[in-house]
Write a structure and sequence with these properties.
alpha+beta; 17 helices; six-stranded antiparallel beta sheet; UCP014753; Beta-galactosidase, Chain A, domain 5; DUF2264_N; eight-stranded antiparallel beta sheet; DUF2264_C; Glycosyltransferase
Length: about 650
């Protein structure tokens, strides 16, 4: 397979020391210089559009790298190009300047960018605020304070106004509005659900994604607790308490390789997923066992290290692409501009720490042994987390985006999300190859001509809850969903067991008033042979070679990424296995992916139809190790999982 220009421009950086991390940040900042406007206030990295205006998009390109720049400067580091941002502050906030960012309106994207700007003034005032002339300071504080009387979304956005006021406070500005900031904080605290977790909105919202952790809320709480511990000690201690409790759950979203589980929206932020761990260090939080500073350091640096090695995450000039493991506009939200991706610079917050901080003096430690080969129920996000099968993944029910969001069913409604395999998003809705229905049960109306081309999956989850299987102590996730008014589906998700660690099981009870076709997918997997060509059918079922296998009730695919399979565990006569070659650029991790799927057909019936599906997955042991699943995986495939449905009686 051709290897020309296939390496990441940052792959040689070992990301082992504070100096290595600073060098990575410097490379990212240097790459932005050619795209920076003459006055420094705008950075234009491309020509894709967003729901907001182009000036706001280019402000986004300017502001988001400041998360890293400000941390570097706060920690005593030096960056020669910092003057670009100082000039940008002056020109972008000047209403008479050609590069003026524009005044803020209600619910304006410019508000989002105030969070990085406020943070930068709060931690690096001497380098980024003090050099400004007095007139520029007045323009800057007027612009930043202009959000204090504007309407904001009832979400994590309120933190952005808090950070704007933090910056104004540290600058001694008369535009600092303490009353507004405290009111925002009091309201944000109503998002708290318990167990360290906050919703991304009020009580009616069931959204606990990375915005509840690294992208926004937990990160912001920790930074606030560091910067305002003298002024607001009670709240700051509460935020640190929440972080300690949250960390014990959040650790399960990372695997031993450093990968975080892709789940929810804004996956283009990539290694921002791990910024929570850096914020823990920034806030000097006392760590809960079994976490140590060596463990925390390992989790974060392995995550960043993983991303330095992904060639598709960067253009050849060192700028970030829009996507996840490769450029992919299809997975984006309507608020993702080319500069959005630099939210990842939050993960450089550890550069604000002195070299003597225990985060930096500790030796990097592996993922804790006591947390390996475990399954853990996470009550608040409605997740069952496990790493029994050689990768970290969650079984998921209950979450959904509280507003219209592109491909929200794929981002929140699937049954499982994996650190190794990633989830897929539809590139169309007419056929299964373009739909990308991994880790999902997809249904289409087969009651009339032309009706069998459009599929529906779980988007809005009803009555999600945990249940304990009678007599076993096993916790399962149960939920309901209605793709049509006359179609009801109830789903139980069973985690893997020690006797069958590479399997999890889904049970569905289906009642339908119309004829349906069903397609239930396992994990999507890289779908190419050793030579880069598409996987081909295997001639023998007992082969561990790369290829696909289909039969009456099972399907599997093996490639350099490992092996993925599905198995019909009940005797429904129409269920057949098929490996679907997904349309390119649908899976977040593998641009060319294959999906083992069970297909079936169902007539209208007021009786229960039961579908019981085993999902098998075993990824390669490590990115640096041998390709493919480890030898002997076929024996694990033949170990059929056992579950008892007695607890469903008498409904079975």
């Amino acid at each position: 397979m051709p290897a020309f220009a296939s390496a990441s421009p940052y792959a040689s950086n070992p990301i082992a020391t504070r100096e290595d991390l600073a060098a990575f940040l410097t490379g990212l900042l240097d790459a932005l210089a050619p795209y920076t406007s003459p006055g420094g206030a705008l950075i234009q990295l491309g020509h894709t559009a967003t729901h907001y205006d182009e000036a706001a998009a280019q402000l986004e390109g300017f502001s988001r790298p400041i998360w890293g720049l400000a941390a570097l400067l706060a920690g005593g580091g030096v960056y020669a190009g910092a003057e670009r941002w100082v000039r940008g502050f002056a020109n972008g906030s000047d209403p008479e300047a050609a590069e003026f960012w524009g005044q803020m309106r209600d619910k304006d994207q410019r508000m989002v960018e105030c969070s990085a700007i406020g943070f930068s003034i709060a931690v690096a005032k001497e380098q980024l605020w003090d050099p400004l002339p007095d007139a520029a300071k007045r323009n800057f504080e007027d612009w930043l304070g202009g959000m204090n009387d504007k309407q904001m979304p009832d979400t994590n956005w309120l933190w952005f106004r808090v950070f704007a006021n933090l910056g104004l406070y540290r600058a001694g500005s008369p535009r600092y509005n303490e009353k507004r900031m405290l009111a925002d904080l009091d309201h944000l605290d109503t998002f708290y659900a318990g167990g360290g977790w906050s919703r991304d909105g009020p009580e009616t919202v069931c959204q606990f994604d990375y915005y509840s952790s690294s992208f926004a809320i937990q990160f912001a709480q920790l930074v606030y607790s560091k910067l305002m511990q003298k002024e607001d000690p009670k709240r700051c201690e509460e935020y640190r308490r929440r972080a300690r409790e949250f960390a014990s759950d959040f650790v399960h979203y990372f695997d031993t390789e450093g990968r975080a589980i892709p789940f929810g929206r804004s996956m283009v932020y990539r290694f921002a997923q791990s910024s929570f761990w850096g914020a823990l260090a920034f806030a000097d939080v006392e760590l809960p066992a079994p976490l140590t500073w060596g463990v925390v350091k390992g989790i974060q640096l392995r995550n960043i290290r993983y991303w330095t090695k992904q060639p598709g995450a960067y253009n050849r000039d060192g700028t970030l692409t829009i996507g996840f493991n490769y450029p992919n506009l299809n997975m984006t939200e309507n608020y993702n501009s080319p500069g959005s991706t630099y939210w990842c610079c939050k993960s450089f917050i550890t550069l604000a720490l002195p070299p003597s901080h225990p985060f930096w003096t500790a030796n990097e430690e592996p993922y804790p042994a006591v947390l390996r080969e475990k399954t853990t129920v996470l009550e608040y996000p409605f997740h069952i987390a496990t790493n029994l099968g050689g990768h970290a993944y969650v079984l998921s029910s209950g979450q959904q985006c509280s507003y219209d969001l592109k491909q929200s069913a794929a981002k929140y409604g699937k049954f499982a999300y994996s650190s190794a395999f990633g989830y897929s998003v539809p590139v169309g809705n007419g056929t299964l190859p373009e739909a990308g229905y991994d880790s999902a049960l997809a249904l289409c109306d087969a009651s009339g001509p032309g009706e069998d081309e459009f599929w529906r999956t779980r988007r809005q989850t009803l009555n999600a809850r945990f249940e304990t299987v009678n007599g076993s102590g096993v916790r399962v996730l149960r939920s309901e969903w209605k793709p049509w008014p006359d179609v009801e589906v109830e789903t139980w998700l069973f985690p893997p067991t020690e006797s069958a660690p590479f399997w999890h099981v889904r049970v569905h009870r289906l009642r339908t008033g119309r004829a349906l076709r069903a397609a239930e997918g396992g994990f999507a997997i890289y779908g190419q042979r050793e030579d880069g060509r598409a996987l081909e059918p295997l001639q023998a079922s007992n082969s561990e070679a790369f290829g696909t296998l289909e039969d009456a009730g099972a399907a599997r695919a093996a490639s350099r990424a490992g092996v993925s399979g599905v198995l019909a565990m009940e005797s429904h006569p129409s269920r057949v296995g098929k490996v679907i070659r997904l349309d390119a650029n649908s899976n977040l991790v593998a641009a060319r992916a294959a999906l083992p799927t069970i297909l079936s057909e169902h007539k209208p019936s007021d009786k229960n139809v039961w579908l019981i599906t085993g999902i098998f997955a075993l990824p390669r042991e490590s990115d640096d190790g041998p390709e493919g699943a480890r030898a002997g995986w076929l024996a694990e495939w033949k170990k059929r999982p056992e579950i008892s449905l007695d607890f469903l009686l008498p409904s079975v």
